[in-house]
Specification:
heterodimer, A: alpha/beta, Alpha-Beta Plaits, 2 domains, 4-stranded antiparallel beta sheet, 12 helices, globular, disordered N terminus, B: mainly alpha, 11 helices
């Protein structure tokens, strides 16, 4: 872990559905992942963040048994992937949008996966419906857009009704409607008590979706915590406009939340989320005419955390 | 889920893969076309001796020159998993990679047997009327027809499985094809020249042994057993080496 960065402790390492303990992966002289430990809890969406080449995909592949760690252990629900009794019913994963034979139809691809996984063929139609691909079920995957491939990958991941979802850059290629659909889908999936780990190289891409974040750079953990903790660390602010600015400022101050008057009808609130400010205003019957969140500081913190910190890293 | 049900599912999955891949149909068309062409050329040979059992047996061995296509079919099919990235969902559904290998071998044994049986049907459809027209009474169950046919089906199945082992071992379709063609077109020919007594035990010499039981070649059951040993040996090598590597 990077010095000075506190990792959030969950209920306990062993109870976390996804758990990495001091995992290292070397490819010859190249260290892709180094001494990486983190957990992802059930009932939450965890964003696995880092710049390109940080080791995110390698880490996910080690969790899924597709790559062997050089050292350490990557476990899901207490076991390594190949030790799981029914892997498809335990973990669903989308690693790449290009893991399909271009000549096969979407339905044919899913039937092949379902047969190998021991999943009834009737689940194929259900997952195609779930991801909104019924209309393209008989089309060859070679003609699919990137967004359609992402949806097909997700359909394959959902075949076994898994308790854990691992998605590598799932928003790639999705249009705004698709991204909104994905957010809603992942939220309801996590709210049902499942575990979701999604990787991204863009914090802004996932900050509206995730509850927790794990940030890595150059294969090393830089930060693990909740999004609220990250916000607090970034000094993120909420700007709120109201005709009763004085009254709202007083109510916020009563709860220990600092608010600075920016203009006669605008407050800048620090140390609280937009949801919290909105709730306080609603409880006081204070009408809000606008509310915005300043994400610049969060992005700045992300870049700060993922920037090279040593001369060796800078030279790499 | 029981082991038997899991195995059935895995076999069904591998069979569906082969049936939904264009390369399967491309090879099927090529093998049938070459078989028909070679059979026609053999029949038009005035020295074929179609009035003798040996001559008829030789004609029904027409497909043996194209058995390397069965290896190529298996190799391209297996290595295609890595080319198209389908190895990822395959090994996520079945983390025990050796089980995938065994299922793939079994599925291609069946595929090779089916294609070889189709070749035999083409040979019979072309040759029997031709031979009959020359006044030689030959039926599909005559020993001179049946024995080469059985040899063709067994060898087609085994060579297709051998191709799977090659494909899993090299994990690259182009390299798999190059290895297959290089072995049969160059390497084995050179070995046969310098060590002729060893030739009949080599993969290429074996298929001659399966199809054409001339005195100096291996009998059919021995040739099939040696071929099975090659399949098992290469599969074991693949399972111990490349199959353990990371899946990209």
């Amino acid at each position: 872990m990077a010095s000075g960065v506190a990792a959030r402790s969950f209920d306990g390492m062993q109870s976390a559905p996804i758990c990495l303990e001091r995992v290292t992966k070397r490819y010859g002289p190249v260290i892709a992942v180094e001494d990486l430990s983190f957990q992802a809890r059930a009932g939450a969406i965890t964003g696995f963040l880092g710049p390109n080449g940080a080791g995110k995909s390698t880490t996910l592949r080690m969790l899924l048994g597709l790559a062997n760690p050089t050292a350490g252990a990557a476990t899901i629900l207490g076991g390594r992937y190949h030790e799981l009794d029914d892997p498809t019913a335990t973990v669903g994963a989308v690693l790449d949008a290009n893991t399909f034979h271009p000549w096969r139809s979407a339905r044919s691809h899913l039937r092949i996966v379902a047969a190998a996984a021991g999943v009834p063929a009737k689940r194929v139609g259900a997952v195609l419906d779930e991801v909104g691909l019924v209309h393209a079920a008989e089309r060859r995957v070679g003609g699919f857009s990137l967004g359609m491939r992402q949806r097909l990958g997700l359909a394959g991941a959902l075949l076994g009704r898994p308790r854990v979802l691992l998605l590598d850059e799932p928003a790639n290629g999705l249009d705004p409607d698709g991204i909104r659909w994905l957010r809603g889908f992942l939220r309801s999936y996590a709210d049902a008590g499942n575990t979701v780990l999604i990787s991204s190289h863009l914090l802004s891409e996932v900050q509206q979706t995730v509850d927790d974040v794990v940030i890595i750079a150059r294969g090393r953990l830089r930060l693990q915590g909740s999004l609220d903790e990250l916000n607090a660390r970034a000094g993120r602010t909420v700007e709120v406009r109201t005709t009763q600015a004085t009254e709202l400022r007083g109510r916020l101050a009563a709860l220990g939340i600092d608010a600075v008057r920016a203009t006669h009808d605008t407050l800048t609130v620090a140390g609280a989320t937009a949801e919290t400010v909105g709730e306080i205003a609603a409880l006081g019957g204070i009408p809000l005419t606008a509310m915005t969140t300043d994400s610049a500081d969060l992005e700045a913190l992300f870049f700060e955390l993922t920037a090279p910190t040593t001369e060796i890293e800078m030279a790499a | 889920m029981t082991t038997a049900a899991r195995t059935r599912g895995l076999l069904a999955s591998e069979a569906r893969k082969a049936a939904s891949t264009p390369v399967t149909y491309g090879f099927l068309a090529a093998i049938l076309a070459f078989t028909a062409l070679n059979m026609s050329l053999s029949l038009s040979d005035t020295t074929a001796g179609l009035d003798t059992a040996a001559g008829v047996r030789h004609v029904f061995s027409a497909g043996r020159d194209f058995l390397f296509l069965f290896i190529a079919l298996g190799a391209v099919g297996a290595a295609g998993e890595f080319r198209h990235g389908t190895a990822v969902p395959t090994f996520l559904a079945t983390p025990a990679r050796w089980r995938v290998l065994v299922a793939k071998l079994a599925a291609h044994l069946g595929l090779g047997a089916i294609i070889a049986a189709a070749c035999v049907a083409v040979e019979i459809a072309i040759a029997l009327p031709w031979i009959d027209a020359q006044g030689t009474g030959v039926t599909p169950w005559s020993a001179s027809v049946l024995e080469p046919a059985i040899g063709s089906i067994l060898s087609g199945a085994a060579y297709c499985a051998l191709g799977v082992a090659v494909g899993i071992l090299v994990r690259n379709q182009i390299v798999a094809l190059a290895v297959t063609l290089g072995w049969f077109a160059v390497a084995e020919g050179a070995l046969a020249t310098f060590t002729p007594e060893v030739s009949r035990f080599l993969p290429g010499g074996l298929f001659s042994g399966v199809d054409n039981q001339a005195a100096h070649l291996l009998p059919l059951p021995v040739a099939v057993a040696v071929l099975a040993a090659y399949v098992a040996g290469l599969s074991l090598l693949a399972a111990r080496t490349t199959l353990r590597h990371d899946i990209a």
